[in-house]
Amino acid sequence: MNKASIFRRDNSHYEKHGKTERCIDDEIPFEIPESWAWVRLGEIVYNHGQMMPRNDFCYIDIGSIDNNNQKLNDKEIIIPVNMAPSRARKIVKKGDILYATVRPYLHNMCIVDREFSETPIASTGFAVMTCYKELFNRYLFYHLLSPDFDKYANNIENSKGVAYPAINDTRLYKAIIPLPSLAEQYKIVENIETIFPILDRLKNI
After folding, report:
1. CA-to-CA distance for 91 and 43, rounded, in angstroms?
2. Rounded to an integer, what distance in angstroms lies between the CA atom of residue 112 and that of residue 101?
3. N or C: which end of the chain has fewer CB within 10 A?
4. Nearest-angstrom CA–CA distance, 125 and 166
5. DSSP line for 25-75
6. H or E segment at 109?
7. Can you list the domains of the chain with their CATH numbers?
8. pLDDT of 99-140, one tens digit each?
9. pLDDT, tens digit, 9 for 90 and up, residues 15-36
10. Among 99, 93, 139, 141, which Cα is nearest to 116's?
11. For residue 111, what are the β-bridge partners?
């Protein structure tokens, strides 16, 4: 994981690029504990790049996501290599986060939670994020679902387009993410996932 470029001095937040520093207080959405850090999304994730399918493959497109539960559908979509869509390009591995950059407010996103019978390849409509070892993928996943991240991703300056608003990769990876220690990330996720069954029961009352 890249060394964080955001630091605090004199009660303000600064970002360093080379020898240049600039104040970014206007980008900081809320206060965090002193032991936490603010980082750019692009500093804490990477991807496996792109490839053209060479054999039959499992295709993951927007329709492969259950956006009510943010999970992959159980059924695989196997595409013959000679019928590969032009958008079938992004390399995917188990544990990756898929985040649909088209109409991000719909929350077409998931964690890839299984292996596939054929090589999985995702649509270029997704950002594919692999977390560095200091980042728990479920922690980042829940932050990407948060109102604060929604506000950023769907801001008119970030999400362009009339019929199909979309946030481009450059803007996406500039998002500022609050980063606690790895142990705290696990604890936060544990607390979130403890609350979910309670909320489900309350919905049915």
Report:
1. 20
2. 17
3. C
4. 9
5. GGG--S---TT-EEEEHHHHEE---B----S-EEEE-GGGEETTTTEE-SS
6. strand 109-111
7. 6-203 (3.90.220.20)
8. 999 999 999 999 999 999 999 999 999 999 999 999 999 999
9. 998 888 999 999 999 999 999 9
10. 93
11. 97
